[in-house]
Every structure is written in C-alpha cells, then in structure tokens.
Specification:
By secondary structure, this protein is α+β, with helices and mostly antiparallel strands. It has one domain. The protein contains six helices and six strands; from the N terminus they run H-E-H-H-E-H-E-E-E-E-H-H. It has a six-stranded antiparallel beta sheet, sandwiched between helices. Helix 2 runs antiparallel to helix 3 and helix 5 packs antiparallel against helix 6.
Length: about 190
C-alpha cells in the first residue's frame, strides 16, 4: 500500500504536467515573450507571427523553383518576431524583461549557444533547444541595442542547423542570417 501512494502521486503529477503543457499551448521550442507595449512617442514597434499554415502556403508557392526552401518552410511551425524601439521611458523596463526571458530559458532546457557583448552596449544572446542530436526544436535570438531597439526572435519546428541561414535569407531577418552563418562555420568538418 505504501508503494501505491507515491506511485499514484507521481501519476497525478505527470498527468497535471501534461495537462498544463496542453493548456499552455506551447510546443517544445516555443517561448512566450508576453506582450510588449509600443513606445508612447511613436517609436519603432514590430510584431510578426507567422504560423505553419502560412509557411505551408508559401512552401506550395515556391515548391517548383526552390524545393529545398519549400522543404525547410514545411519543417517550421512558427516564426515570432518582436522589435521594440527603446526610448528613455521604456529602456530600463524592456532591457530588464529581455534579461528575465533569457534567465528563464535555462530551467526550461534551453542552451545558451552564443553571447556577444560589445563596447557599444549591444547585448546578444542566442539559445537553442534540440530535438535529439540532429535538429533544433527551437531557436531564440535576443538582441538589446541600448541606443536603438530590442529584438526577440523565436523559431519553432524541426530545423537542421544548416537551414538557419537559408531561413534568415528567405525571411530577410538579419540576426537570423548572422546566426545561420555562425552555425554553418561551427559545423563539424569546417
């Protein structure tokens, strides 16, 4: 009887955990950045969320001309981009929030793969969550340019590291192009 009680508790905890993931609606590589408020003075603000249905449609449109890119687009479930212009009023709050998002990633199984901090104050953090040893379930790129903007990018899917640069090119996302180039250079055999 004593063995059944802990076992029952473990099953209940597992069931509750699975239910929470379903309720949260987040897939393995997805990160919830929350909602950002546009700067009050009309500063830069961009939020883009491209889901699998639109990516699949794009893949159909380019299938004949670029089959490799179409295959890549079909492997992506979500591309989420936030760009928030930094002003004197929101700089401290947005910077603190981006740093908190970064801090919360490690306990969720994300690996910090790139950190860049330069003398101009630019602060870049890139995080990956792998699926097995061959693919990325998710990629998070965070950039804080204290003189300009904060950029957060989350890509979710079944993405091979060598495909990241191609995705950056096709979606015209410079931080993603740079990450793809770095991943390509770091690949075994280079």
């Amino acid at each position: 009887m004593k063995i059944m009680v802990p076992y029952s508790l473990a099953v209940a905890a597992l069931t509750a955990g699975l239910g929470f993931n379903v309720l949260a609606g987040l897939s393995t590589g997805q990160v919830d950045f929350g909602k950002f408020t546009p700067p009050g003075d009309g500063g830069q603000f961009v939020e883009v969320q491209i889901k699998s249905n639109l990516l699949s449609l794009a893949a159909q449109l380019i299938e004949k001309q670029q089959p490799d890119v179409a295959k890549l687009l079909r492997s992506v479930q979500l591309v989420h981009v936030n760009v928030v212009g930094l002003t004197d009023e929101n700089r401290a709050e947005v910077t603190k929030r981006v740093r908190q998002i970064r801090q919360d990633l490690a306990p969720q199984g994300w690996e910090q793969t790139v950190t860049v901090q330069d003398k101009n104050g630019e602060d870049v953090g890139i995080y990956t969550k792998t699926r097995g040893g061959e693919a990325l379930a998710g990629l998070v790129i965070t950039v804080i340019d204290p003189k300009g903007q904060a950029v957060l990018i989350n890509i979710v899917g079944d993405i091979r590291p060598e495909q990241v640069a191609v995705l950056g090119e096709k979606l015209d996302l410079k931080p993603l192009k740079d990450v793809g180039a770095a991943l390509k250079d770091a690949a075994p055999g280079k």
